[in-house]
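re: ur question from yesterday

yeah so i grabbed the chain u mentioned. its 304 aa long if i counted rite. heres the sequnce exactly as i have it in my notes:
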Amino acid sequence: MPLLRDLHAFSPHLTFAPQASAGCLLGGDHRTTKTNMYNAHSITPDSAPCTTLTQIEGLSSRYSHIPTSTIVQTIREAGWEFASGTARAGRTPERIAHAAHVLRFSNPNLPQVAGNRIEAVLLNSHDGSTSFELGFGIYRMACANGLVVRTATVGSVRLIHSGLNLESVFTAARSLVDRAPEVSATIERWSNTMVGHDHSLELSSRMAKARWGDRFVEADLLSPRRHEDTRNDLWTIFNRAQESVMRGGMPVTLRRNLHVADGTIDGITIESQTTRKATAIRGALKQMRLNQDLFAIASEYAWN
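ran it thru and got these structure tokens back, copy pasting raw so excuse formatting
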């Protein structure tokens, strides 16, 4: 299968994260979802954990703590404007105050590309669970899919908190502006890469298995949810399948193994299938990690 040429270097630091609808970028539902390590709630630069002034106890003395609210101001000075944010849910007030969080920024000076807005995306935490990352994002206005690009080849950075400083943050944020045309060119290349029916089905199946593993049997990931998603280029097909994997809503059939006691020590295992409605992937971190795999799969179907 041909390999992607223009974005080959983006993997594995390329991820996708569905956001709220385009009309809810600055608002939306701020209620915290049912608590687990992958759930998240909406935040702004003026709320915790962005405003937390100290790192969590137990980190190295070399840890350089800079409140994310201060980092946001530096990114704004580089030409970016805050658009939306989410934070990982926590079980205790201390964990909530220091949790990993993802912020997205728009830039009024960067043109849209075929209905896609180029953004800057920040990942940070104050509990040592993540490094500081700042990279490109592409916000697809039609379905609120968020393509996140993180790689040094297009000016994005991953920094450890030891020695983190605002000068390096500003330099990274400005570099994204300077190199945004490379991301625009990538969208155009994907949009001009046509994918046949068999390869589309193969691609969607592999993307489904990235989420459900070998349990996956079948699901329709490719049915267009809107008129603009009827094209058969790689960019459109990928976004259709990615939206289905991440947001769910369609029936998905999965294998399951039932252990049945039969009077022996080991018993017997019976394989069956169950069909249910796929749920959405919640939590910015899990979305990002899963989408690294989704992009790596889709890149195998691109060619010049």
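noticed a couple things. The helical segments are 68-77, 93-98, 166-191, 197-212, 234-247, 284-299. also Residues 8-191 form one domain.
anyway ttyl
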